[in-house]
Amino acid sequence: MHELSLAQSVLHIVEAVARRDGFARVNAVWLEIGALAPVDPGAMRFCFDAVTRDSIAHGARLEIIAIPGSAWCTGCAGSVPVVARYDACPDCGRYPLRIDGGTEMRVKELEVG
Q: Which of 108, 105, 21 is nearest to 56 (CA)?
C-alpha cells in the first residue's frame, strides 16, 4: 500500500509549512488527486488518519478534490477527457493519446488553528 508513504509525505509537507509559517494546529488538509493518479482515495484517507496521530494534524479532516483526466489526441488535434490511461479518444476513437492532466497529487490548502 503505497498510500502510506504518500500520506507520510503529505504530513512532512504540512509540518514543514507549519515550521515556516509558525502555526501549531492543522484542522483540515485539501488534497488534489488526479483521476489517473495511482492513488486510492479511500486508502489515502485511512493512511492519513494513521500517520497524523500524535502530530500537528491529529484529527484533521482530509478533503479530497478529484481532478479529471485529460489527454491530447493527435487525430483530433485537441484536448479530450479520459477516464483511464489507455482509453481511445472519446471523439474519434483513435490511439494513442498523450496524457496531459489528472496524474497529479498535491496539497492544495490547509486550514490551521
A: 21
| Helix pair angle (41-51, 3-21), 10° resolution | 50
Predicted pLDDT at 1:
60
Residue closest to 83 by CA, chosen among 96, 93, 68, 97: 68
Task: For cell 484536448, name the residue.
Answer: 79
Report the alpha-carbon distance of residue 73 to residue 94 in Å, rounded: 8
Q: Which residues of the chain have pLDDT under 70?
A: 1
CATH annotation of 3-112:
3.30.2320.80
What grid cell was written down for 58? 491529529
List, for residues 1-11, the tens digit of each pLDDT value: 699 999 999 99
DSSP, collapsed to helix, strand or coil, labels residue 105 as: strand
Q: Which of 48, 85, 41 is nearest to 65 (CA)?
A: 41
Helix (H, G, I), strand (E, B) or coil at 14: helix
* Distance (Å, whole) CA 57 – CA 113: 10
